[in-house]
């Protein structure tokens, strides 16, 4: 009898220790209009807590985060906690019309969720229209008290948020494009922590970071830009990647980071150069040929304490279209096996999907003039289904209350037509380029394992697309160029130590294979994280059914859930 009592006592001590190490962390976000002048002119934007970017939220693994959002802006609003699993808290995911109706102007909503099994760098952002251009901030998850990083503790750590700036009302930019059926105006600048840097004429400020020679720092890099993937470098310094999307990686030394909108990358860098002043810089990786883009460069300055020079050295950034460098970076990342929260690759596959995605055209309305190619509207689709958000009720409410007419569960596992997907001769083939709007979900049984081949197409144009999955991480088994070959490409699968992500840049004119475990009931959004493509329809959803126990069943919605 003594041994069971002893074991029970040990278990209770461990439980008490675990509970004691977790906390309830509470924040408030006041979202309202703000006049700023980062570049040449005053501009009214929507921002959180009077700053751009918004406040950094810091928690520890195991904590419960409570955030009160006060919408004092003139726009509908929701806040997405990008990369958070939201285990049994799908009501807090923040995808407007998918998991909630938006918070109306003048209203308030409280997001409450536990953060379990995750640590690293994530972020939060608006998930309505183009508001995330200015409504965003870092979400940093440190290890639970008593635990440590799986690398040497840095001297200090800093969030580095890469943004995109328009000298215009971004809601108007988006609305004008949607009204015309054509492409939106490109941005005027990029930013580092809200500041364009001193390479722009009449830039208001440059982000500066002071370092001590010989010390090692952790930079938590977040690409919060709306529509551009970015190259990031620090003059004369290497970096060591230790995590992506809040998942630890095997250390990878590099002189350049490539990062898509939605992704995060944690790097260690040591101030090991002569005391001086060095630029950190970012400019676009523009993989689409013949498409206009903002080709400017944002800079910050790293200043050594007791620097002997005041003139910053500039890094040699890759060419805008340097796909080999981008692919080398993305494909060389591997997971940290047996590191904190490492999950092995599921081996038994329940659902196999082959999903083509890219741009397309939607028929212009009768008696209308549209500015897209061939006189039609620009659109986008996955398996030729161009996603359209509902407006009367969120999809998650329709799922929970079993309401018909909001969405259907017939998203196809295969494209409706097989063709030479990456052949640019098909770019404007009218027999395959047209698509239609719908609101579709793929139904999944609880705890099923899903393998998806994400196949880029050449319709309208070829480019690298960042695809983000809400509610789950996925293993990246392989990626490559051209059309996926189901006979030979599985031989390239990394089933031992693949990188784990929530957002993947599918190679330009290529493919990627991902695998994930659907262990979280609810409705989960999968979409392109280029905001220019999301309203065009490059998205779909998963309906994950409840499990068989209370602990695997989606709970009732909060009483203050916003209504449409």
TrEMBL record:
This protein's record includes keyword Oxidoreductase: yes
GO cellular component, one term: apoplast
Gene3D superfamilies for this protein: Cupredoxins - blue copper proteins
Subcellular localization: Secreted, Extracellular space, Apoplast
Enzyme class: oxidoreductase
InterPro entries the record matches: Cu-oxidase-like_N (IPR011707), Cu-oxidase_2nd (IPR001117), Cu-oxidase_C (IPR011706), Cu-oxidase_fam (IPR045087), Cu_oxidase_CS (IPR033138), Cu_oxidase_Cu_BS (IPR002355), Cupredoxin (IPR008972), CuRO_1_LCC (IPR034288)
Keywords tagged on the record: Apoplast, Copper, Glycoprotein, Lignin degradation, Metal-binding, Oxidoreductase, Repeat, Secreted, Signal
Domain Plastocyanin-like: start-end pairs: 31-145, 157-307, 410-546
One Pfam family cited in the UniProt record for this chain: Cu-oxidase
Co-factor binding details: Binds 4 Cu cations per monomer.
Co-factor requirement: Cu cation
Protein EC: 1.10.3.2
PANTHER family listed in its UniProt record: LACCASE-7, MULTI-COPPER OXIDASE
Protein name in the entry: Laccase
Residues making up the signal peptide according to the UniProt record: 1-22
Lineage: Eukaryota, Viridiplantae, Streptophyta, Embryophyta, Tracheophyta
Reaction catalysed by this enzyme: 4 hydroquinone + O2 = 4 benzosemiquinone + 2 H2O
Role noted for this protein: Lignin degradation and detoxification of lignin-derived products.
Segments traversing the membrane: none
GO biological process: lignin catabolic process
Record GO terms (molecular function): copper ion binding; hydroquinone:oxygen oxidoreductase activity
Keyword Ligase recorded: no
Family, similarity comment: Belongs to the multicopper oxidase family.
